[in-house]
Amino acid sequence: MRALVTAEFTPEGLARLEGLGYAVTTAGWGWTGEPLDGDGLAAAVDGSQLLVCEVEAVDAAVLASSGLRVVASARGTPSNVDLDAATASGVPVLHAPGRNAGSVADFVVGLLLVQARGIARGQTHLRQRGWHVDGQVPYLHFRGRELADLVVGLVGYGAVGRAVARRLRGGFGTRVLACDPPRPPEPGGDAEAVDLDALLAASDVVSLHVPDTPATRGLIGAEAFVRMRSGALLINTARGRVVDEAALVDALRGGVIAGAALDVFATEPLPRDHPLLGLDNVTLTPHLAGAADDVVAHHTRMICDDLERLAAGARPAHLANPAVWPPRS
């Protein structure tokens, strides 16, 4: 059997694939930093029974021409794979939900500390203007609040939201609210279940953890900012289009909210002339929340575990197209 791995994958994971009987070839995004295009992927995967991918698009043409038996997407949601085409072909699609939940949750706490305690503003001032602020000690200008004194509202309570709540509640004693009707917090857990209006009104910090869907696009816009506290902060490590960026810029300029920390944007890369870049009450990072070395180890382990389940005739734990199970004889 042959396997093509275009995702980042650990040496231990490659050894596990070989232990399952695969002759492994590596190419594409995970090894060169450049994803294979459709023709390149079709040529590289020809003759392989397994494809492990992360960025490359696996469409109906690739599936039809390759003879693949299993596709593993090293992503939380396998958005790079045509699930309908895979299901029609009887090809199981494995994925790695929650693979970067810890990484993103850590980053959220980092952004919260940076924005709430003036860390980024203090560093910028020191580098560009020196120690004093208008002749006064910086202590008077870059104060913030302790996390234990804040109320943090999480819009979305999936794997990332739950990981953020555990860190804030257990590590800092922060009161955490969460709005996610399909996945509400457990009573007595790390967060209190509230509706969106109550969350916006009560939170010192609003952190977004929902996917980009028609229902969530523009969810946080002018009306939401008016309902938030005037000293509130917005954190977005989810998807850029969940926030109406024009309304956010207006809210930040007008003092409707106090600040924001953003890792994702409606357009990426962020244009160099974007108005957010000119605001000093915003912390901006270039889509880094999931960029922890550990994430590769997590998705490698999850995929290898499921491939071993498949080899043993068992149902994979993370099967994106359950209609293919049980497999056709």
Can you give me a brief rundown of this structure?
With 329 residues, the chain is an alpha/beta fold. It has two domains: 130 residues, NAD(P)-binding Rossmann-like Domain (Rossmann fold); 184 residues, 3-Layer(aba) Sandwich (Rossmann fold), CATH 3.40.50.720. It is 35% helix and 14% strand.
SSE-based structural type: alpha/beta
Count of individual beta strands: 12
Strand % is 5-15%
Gyration radius, rounded:
23 Å
CATH architecture assignment name of the largest domain: 3-Layer(aba) Sandwich
Shape: elongated
Helical residues, percent: 25-40%
Major beta sheet, strand line-up = 8-7-6-9-10-11-12
Q: Looking at this structure, what is the CATH superfamily of the largest domain?
A: NAD(P)-binding Rossmann-like Domain
Number of helices: 12
Total of domains: 2
Could you characterize the architecture of this molecule?
The chain has 329 residues and is of the alpha/beta class. It folds into two domains: 2-99 and 293-324, Rossmann fold; 101-284, NAD(P)-binding Rossmann-like Domain (Rossmann fold), CATH 3.40.50.720. The chain has twelve helices and twelve strands. The protein has helices at residues 11-19, 29-32, 38-45, 60-66, 83-88, 101-116, 119-129, 159-172, 196-202, 222-227, 245-253, 293-311, and strands at residues 2-5, 23-26, 50-53, 70-73, 93-94, 151-155, 175-179, 192-193, 205-208, 233-236, 259-262, 282-284. It has a seven-stranded parallel beta sheet, sandwiched between helices. β6 (151-155), α8 and β7 (175-179) form a beta-alpha-beta unit. The longest helix has 19 residues, at 293-311. The radius of gyration is 23 Å and the shape is elongated.
